[in-house]
Amino acid sequence: MNDINSFTTDRLEKKRGGMMKFLLIACLSLFVIACSESSVTTTETTDNSDDLVSSTEVSPHAILSSGYLSESVGMSSNFRAKGAHTANEDGFASPLFGLATAPNGNILVADAGAGVATLDGRTNIPLPGVSDMSPIGRGTMWALKGLTGAPGDDTGQALYRVSKGKNKVIADLFSFEATNNPDGGVVDSNPFDVESLGGKAALVVDAGGNDLLHIDNKGNLKVLAVFPDELVSTANIKELVGCPDSGAGLCGLPDMMPAQPVPTSVAIGPDGYYYVGELKGFPAPSNASNIWRIAPDASWAECGSSPDCMKVFDGGFTSIIDLVFDSEGNLHVAELDEQSWFAVEVLGGGVGGTINSCDLDAASCTEVATEIPILTAITFGNDGRLWATQNALIPNLAEVVAID
């Protein structure tokens, strides 16, 4: 492992690596209608960084959408996370949103630009827009098609069952969101992570709908949990745009404001409970992403008030993008970037993401890998090796690496 340093969930400071500068371009506007009613609109700017966020409502959903395209500026294509080994030399279509391990040991890649791929970059299952997959058995898996347009659009968001090369829609997730809207906010579906419960059912976390769903193989959907908005600090975003010296419009934000949870990841713990991590929406706070523990028999649990959905970690992470348990029961937590999704998506910067290994009994974590640029997914191979994406949103640079 590289430079493992202990930390606790109330950490206020993080060791930050050198800045990786790159320009990220979306084929949909990066600044589409916000995923939160609490988003901000600014009207005057005084510097270039504020021009990026002026006269618009800012949402993290572009970075979670397969409509996302990128090109690098000043970034070395030879960058490697410390201790990483490149597995793919041909390049993925990108963006890469999910990783999983097949029963035969193959590492599967959710390449939203093409479909379900393997480490050599070959697309074995064409499914443009795929955001994640979870194997059921040999040659059979659950797969998600996520948001491929602006938040609120119906772009065919769905849970698929893939078997013998055939893709079958099991559940129309946008239709479910439009009809039920569990969180009571703006209708918005962006199914981002799936976890197999075997051949009869799967768990789906919807980053747009802010909920955790149980879906059986007949397409019956059940809401297990709904995640709440929370008051968060605006200090991080103000620091990112250079407040107060920059005079940027965002400097006028209140000290605290509500943010949507934007759940991005679900993993099944050794105790049988379901664990969900949050990205956290605008204003993209640092150290405010929670991890929730949900009872398997939960039904419409209001997280934070229902005993069926309680926090395991009350903040302590920044922009959680994936969760996975290792064979010893430790929860590994992937953070997209230590400066938050806003630094990557809006400002075209960031310092890289972190993978943490967490002992749930001790409620403490250690850093396993740091400074991974645009980290979006992790998985453990059958041999126990940890794999991760990096530069996951950048065509010709997106890759999957093994972390030593």
UniProtKB/TrEMBL annotation:
It comes from the Bacteria. Gene3D superfamilies: TolB, C-terminal domain. This is ScyD/ScyE family protein. It comes from Fodinibius salicampi. InterPro entries: 6-blade_b-propeller_TolB-like, ScyD/ScyE-like.
